[in-house]
Automatic annotation (TrEMBL):
Keywords: Membrane, Transmembrane, Transmembrane helix. It comes from the Eukaryota. It comes from Laodelphax striatellus (Small brown planthopper). This is TMC domain-containing protein. It is found in: Membrane.
Length: 209
């Protein structure tokens, strides 16, 4: 017997695997490569299982846009949760004194600072400019305008969908009205034909002598 394909469960499994990869990628740099291979194999296996052993869900209807927004929000929260221990490990925790690329250093961030000071002058000047208000304020304004634009587009699309739904309902009512009028007209014509046929038969019958 085929089982129903549970889309949210499989998507959350992918999100969970991706979150674990984010958590461990700083400590195991090859972990994202391994995760990519594992997800590819899992995708092929689940695709085969979905096509052969599963049936489409009939009781629950998923809207593509709403489901995509929900899953992307969950993925964003997972990324934020994974970045917090990253930031703490890089800035505060002292690396191992016996092994690792950061041994003998106060923190991993100090190595990044020392590496940054070896860059050319124009690279450091560009990075310094990106941290000033002259760059952050226009960037913030552009982001706000972009968000407002996408919000306006989404609101316009939502209004258009509502208008089209009302138009479809009105067209359905118009079609039903026309069908009722057509049925009444056909019924009236049939009654007229029956009356005419009955009148013709009454004329053709000879009177009794």
């Amino acid at each position: 017997m085929k089982q129903e394909f549970e889309l949210p469960k499989h998507v959350l499994d992918v999100v969970y695997t991706q979150t674990l990869s984010w958590f461990g990628s700083f400590y195991a740099p090859l972990l994202p490569v391994i995760t990519t291979l594992v997800l590819f194999v899992i995708f092929e296996v689940k695709k085969f299982a979905c096509l052969v052993n599963s049936t489409p869900g009939s009781s629950t209807i998923y809207r593509a846009s709403r489901s995509n927004s929900m899953f992307m929000s969950v993925l964003l929260v997972s990324l934020a949760v994974a970045v917090i221990p990253w930031a703490f490990s890089i800035s505060e925790m002292m690396p191992s004194k016996t092994c690792g690329p950061f041994r003998g250093q106060r923190s991993a961030w100090s190595v990044m600072e020392a590496t940054f000071h070896t860059f050319p002058g124009w690279v450091k000047a560009t990075a310094d400019f990106c941290t000033t208000a002259a760059f952050a304020l226009p960037l913030f304004v552009v982001l706000v305008l972009s968000l407002y634009y996408y919000y306006a587009v989404a609101a316009a699309n939502k209004h258009m969908v509502a208008v089209l739904k009302k138009q479809l309902i009105l067209e359905g009512h118009d079609k039903q009205f026309l069908l009722n009028r057509l049925s009444a007209f056909i019924k009236q014509q049939q009654e007229r034909h029956k009356a005419a046929a009955a009148a013709a038969r009454s004329i053709d019958v000879p009177p009794n002598s």
